[in-house]
Amino acid sequence: MKNKPAIISFTTGLLCVFSISFCTSQSNNPAIEAIVAGDKLNVRIKPDANARVVFQLPITSRVRITQSLNKETAIGGMKGKWVFVTHEQYGKDSRGYTVKKATVEGWVFDYFLAYENRYKPAKSFNYSQLNISAKHYSAEYYFNPDGTYKKIHHVPCYIYTDGDFSDSVCKGECNSGVDNKSIDCISEGRLLQYLNIYKGHNSDMFYINEKNQLCSFICNCCTTSQ
In sequence order, which residues have a C-beta less than 8 Å from that of residue 151 and are 6 or more positions away? Predict the structure, then answer.
C-alpha cells in the first residue's frame, strides 16, 4: 500500500488554498475515530519517527484514521502503529458562527490515540473535585480514589422538561413560566482511562493537561490543584 503524504489544507468551500505536498480526495471507506490522549502529538509527513513534523495536535483533538500500517513498532518502549489521520479544525467567522478553518492530515504514532477498545477502569484517581460552569451547563463532580464519582448536575428546567434523566435522582420542581429555574440531578459513575483521557457516565469526559490539572471536555474547566 502506498503511504499518503502529510497535508495541511486551509479551505474555503472545496478549494485547497495551501498544502505541504498536494491535496488528495478523501476515501469513501468508513474511518475509525479516536481522541488524542497525549499533549502535542506530532503529525509527521511520513510514518517515521525521524520524519518532519508538520503539525502538533493538542490533547482531546478528535481524529479519523483512514490508513494504518500493519506492522507494530516500539518507540521509547511504547508499542503502536503508524496511522494516517485527518483532523478538522474549527473557529469563529466574522459573524460569530462556527466554521471549518482547516484540515490537517498526516502520520501519527497511535500509542497516543484513545480508541474505544483501549479504555480500562481507572485503578486509582488522585483528584477529589471538579466544578464546571459553562453556558447551559453547571455541575460539580466528587471523585473517590478508586475512580468512582458522584455528579451533581444543575439542570435548567427548559432542558430538563425535554431531556431524559431517568438514570439520575432529581430533586426540585420545574414550574411553567419560570425560565431561570433549575433542579439538581444526582448520578454516579466510574471512570475508564487511557493515558490522560478519562471517560465517565454518559457524556462525562475528562483529561489531564500538561500542568497536571484535571479538566472537562465541556468547557476546558480545570482544577487548580489535586
Answer: 139, 140, 141, 142, 186, 187, 188, 189, 200, 201, 204
Q: What is the pLDDT of residues 47-86, one digit of tens each?
A: 999 999 999 999 999 999 999 998 999 999 999 999 999 9
Chain CA centroid to CA 80, Å: 20
Closest CA to 207 of 196, 193, 218: 196
The DSSP-derived string for 17-76 is ---SS---PPPSS--EEEEE-STTEEEESSSSTTSPEEEEEPTT-EEEEEEE-SS-EEET
C-alpha cell at position 25: 480526495
**Cell numbers of 223, please?**
482544577
C-alpha span between 14 and 76 (Å, rounded): 40
Pair 7, 24: CB distance under 8 Å: yes
Residue among 202, 184, 192 at smallest CA distance from 119: 192
Give the dihedral sign, CA 103/33/215/92. Answer: positive
Of 168, 213, 217, 195, nearest in space to 60 by CA? 217
- Chain centroid, CA 104 distance in Å: 16
Give pTM, 2 decimals. Answer: 0.77
Cβ–Cβ < 8 Å for 86, 64: yes
